[in-house]
Amino acid sequence: MNGKRATTHWGFSELFRTRYPQVDLRPESLITDEGTLLCGGGAFSCFDLSLYLVERYCGFEVAAQCGKSLLLDMGRTSQVPYAVFEYQKQHKDWQILDAQTFMEKNYPRQVNLDDLAAGVGMSLRNFKRRFTRATGDSPLTYLQRFRVEAAKRLIENTPESISEICYRIGYEDIAFFRRIFKRYVGVTPYEYRKRIHPSV
Predict the structure, then answer these.
(1) Residue 79 carries which DSSP code?
(2) Of 183, 184, 162, 185, nearest to 174 (Cα)?
(3) Which part of the chain is CATH 1.10.10.60?
(4) Residue ranges, CATH 3.40.50.880, the chain
(5) Is pLDDT at 95 greater than 70 in this prediction?
(6) 153-187 pLDDT, tens per residue?
(7) To which CATH superfamily is domain 5-82 assigned?
(8) What sign for the dihedral angle of Cα 154, 157, 158, 163?
């Protein structure tokens, strides 16, 4: 598999990358196709992979009919809406861990990166570099991903409107929130709610 695209369940992506660094891992994909090597990214992705193969060899109409007969959705290609942000704390940089904890406790408010860097005893430039090296994300990306994960939990567990959730997690511009949410989840907040609560 070295040098080839593959996928696995999103929850095992970091372990997979550690064990098989030469594989081109695509954890956002539900299915990867390298000709004779196909991978599915979840416990039930075998059904998606089966429909994918039916479509490849028999055409879309036959695959669509199979999907209807078996009560399976056609065209699921991404794991992103199901993934949970894992907070990236496996590193040993204690100053960055302190910064992550501060961001997680204060995410609904404006987080000033200059103040945060000073609070852990670093220049802003050094802080950004060390944060990215430790977590794999820039501080701003980390904050956005944390806020989106908080929004997902609110969508799953409360009847609050998308606008109310937007404000609760620290955004004032709902259009910006929708774009950020879709960037990290693959669907809009409304589409995510419909997926979690189909009767809404």
Answers:
(1) -
(2) 162
(3) 94-196
(4) 5-82
(5) yes
(6) 899 889 999 999 999 999 999 999 999 999 888 88
(7) Class I glutamine amidotransferase (GATase) domain (3.40.50.880)
(8) positive
State how far the alpha carbon of 180 is from the alpha carbons of 12, 38, 177, 183, in Å.
24, 31, 5, 5
199/197 Cα distance (integer angstroms): 6
How does residue 80 score in pLDDT terms, banded at 50, 70 and 90?
A: low
Position with higher pLDDT, 123 vs 197: 123
CB 23 within 8 Å of CB 4: yes
The pTM of the full predicted model, rounded to 2 decimals, is 0.66
Tally of residues, the chain? 200
Q: What is the pLDDT of residue 44?
A: 81
Res 199: pLDDT:
66
DSSP secondary structure of 98-142: HHHHHHHHHTTS---HHHHHHHTT--HHHHHHHHHHHHSS-HHHH
Q: Residue 113 and residue 115: Cα distance in Å, rounded?
A: 5
Mean pLDDT of the chain: 88
Of the candidate CATH numbers 3.40.50.12780, 1.10.10.60, 1.10.340.30, 2.170.130.20, the domain formed by 94-196 belongs to 1.10.10.60
